[in-house]
Amino acid sequence: MTANDDTATGTAQHGSMADAELLNTEILLAKPKRVVREDLRMPDGKVIDWYFMDTPASVMVVPITDDNQLVFVRQYRHNLKTHCLELPAGAVSAGEDPADAALRELEEETGYRLAAGEQLAPLGRFYSLPSETNKYTYFYSARVTKHHEPVLDNEIERYFDMSVVTVSVADAFKRIGTDIDGMETVGALMLARQHIAAG
């Protein structure tokens, strides 16, 4: 039996959600995060409702200093009721190039910029939590240098208790699963391993 075998999943009996008829779309919450409810008629006639967050694309940067320190942002995540150690990240604005968004978020959240003569290294685009949202994230690594203190980009961030933390490469990988436990940050570190080692 393989993952594509319809009898393994019951698809042959009920049909696939990919073939569902969209009956209705309702925006439950428009801002700041758009929450959508859809009514779908399945191929077997059953009607179900489906909820997800319709979220703009985002970016995440793995910033590496000339002495091989990784630059993180420590911030309070209210939904988790704890502080998290994360790589700089943020949303891509409408019409904005993802690479430009990555550089903007890097500088706003950390005060770091690309080091002289360096460029962003694209690491790929991946979906984030595909069961709950349609958001995908563009990942980059970058050789960086400190330019100024962080400048928070919106009214809410002033309450996030944000601070910049530098961690050695070796220590960062050891801390995965303890205080580095967000899958986007962990995934970005895994993607950037080759670029980190090359430095």
Walk me through this protein's architecture:
The protein has 199 residues and is of the alpha+beta class. 22% of the residues lie in helices and 38% in strands. The protein is built from five helices and eleven strands; from the N terminus they run ααβββββββαββββαα. The strands form three sheets. Strands 4, 7, 8, 9 and 10 form a five-stranded mixed β-sheet that branches. A three-stranded antiparallel β-sheet has the order 1-2-3, with no helix packed on it. A three-stranded antiparallel β-sheet has the order 6-5-11. Strand 9 (121-127) and strand 10 form a beta hairpin. Residues 1-8 have low confidence and may be disordered.
Map the helices and strands:
Layout (H helix, E strand, L loop, with lengths): L5 H4 L1 H4 L6 E9 L4 E8 L5 E8 L3 E7 L4 E9 L4 E5 L2 E3 L6 H13 L1 E3 L6 E7 L8 E11 L16 E6 H6 L8 H16 L1
Parallel strand pairs: 4-10
Antiparallel strand pairs: 1-2, 2-3, 4-7, 5-6, 5-11, 8-10, 9-10
Note the run of SSEs as H and E.
HHEEEEEEEHEEEEHH
Shape: elongated
Measured as a percent range, the helix fraction is 10-25%
- Largest sheet, if any? 5 strands, mixed
Rg calc = 20 Å
The overall strand count is: 11
Computed structural class:
alpha+beta
Counting H and I runs of at least 4 residues, what is the number of helices? 5
Q: State the end-to-end distance.
A: 45 Å
